[in-house]
């Protein structure tokens, strides 16, 4: 059994690099997965409050963070992924579908998660960590990798 706890190093990395959206998102994903989704959401909500437009993420203005804390609908997140440039749209859809799948998975909707992860992988944005993560989640959902039992440290 693997034991994970929110890493002080991860939190420090986010503090030292407040414009690193991916560090913030990964901290939320890890904490949500180990069972402290409420804490992760509170912390991400605090980050959203202090963010500026100068530190926008790949979806333009932090929409992925806003979605994860529940202040943006899935439909609005996916709508925001569309851009004038089809290549930019593919990248943003890769991200949006991954986050959609993750929220569905954390909410117990394995079928909806599988659909969203499949759409993320279908973008073929193999250089995006969301693409790699979506592919890994699909393998786990298909039972092709043993599930990891995670428990929080006391």
Structure write-up:
With 154 residues, this protein is mainly alpha-helical. The protein has a single domain, classed as Tetratricopeptide repeat domain (Serine Threonine Protein Phosphatase 5, Tetratricopeptide repeat, Alpha Horseshoe). Helices cover 62% and strands 4% of the residues. Strands 1-2 form a two-stranded parallel sheet. The protein starts with a strand and ends with a strand.
Strand content: under 5%
CATH-derived topology: Serine Threonine Protein Phosphatase 5, Tetratricopeptide repeat
Give the end-to-end Cα distance, rounded to a whole number of Å. Answer: 15 Å
Whole-number tally of structural domains: 1
CATH class: Mainly Alpha
Radius of gyration: 15 Å
Specify the structural class.
mainly alpha
Question: Which second-level CATH architecture applies?
Answer: Alpha Horseshoe
What is the succession of H and E elements? EHHHHHHHHE
**CATH homologous superfamily identity:** Tetratricopeptide repeat domain
Q: Can you count the beta strands?
A: 2
Topology:
Elements: E1 2-4, H1 8-16, H2 21-33, H3 37-50, H4 63-68, H5 74-80, H6 86-106, H7 110-122, H8 129-141, E2 150-152
Parallel strand pairs: 1-2
Quick structural overview:
With 154 residues, this protein is mainly α.
List its traits.
single chain, 154 residues, mainly alpha, two-stranded parallel ribbon, 2 strands, 62% helix, 4% strand
């Amino acid at each position: 059994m693997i034991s994970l706890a929110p890493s002080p190093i991860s939190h420090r990395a986010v503090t030292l690099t407040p414009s690193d959206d991916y560090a913030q998102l990964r901290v939320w994903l890890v904490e949500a997965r180990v069972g402290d989704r409420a804490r992760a959401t509170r912390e991400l909500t605090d980050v959203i409050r202090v963010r500026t437009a100068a530190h926008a993420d790949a979806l333009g203005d932090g929409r992925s963070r806003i979605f994860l804390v529940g202040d943006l609908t899935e439909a609005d997140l996916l709508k925001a992924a569309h851009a004038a440039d089809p290549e930019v749209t593919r990248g943003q859809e890769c991200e949006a579908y991954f986050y959609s799948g993750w929220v569905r998975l954390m909410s117990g909707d394995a079928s909806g998660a599988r659909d969203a992860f499949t759409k993320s992988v279908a973008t073929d944005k193999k250089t995006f960590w969301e693409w790699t993560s979506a592919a890994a989640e699909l393998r786990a959902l298909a039972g092709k990798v043993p599930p990891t039992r995670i428990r929080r440290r006391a």
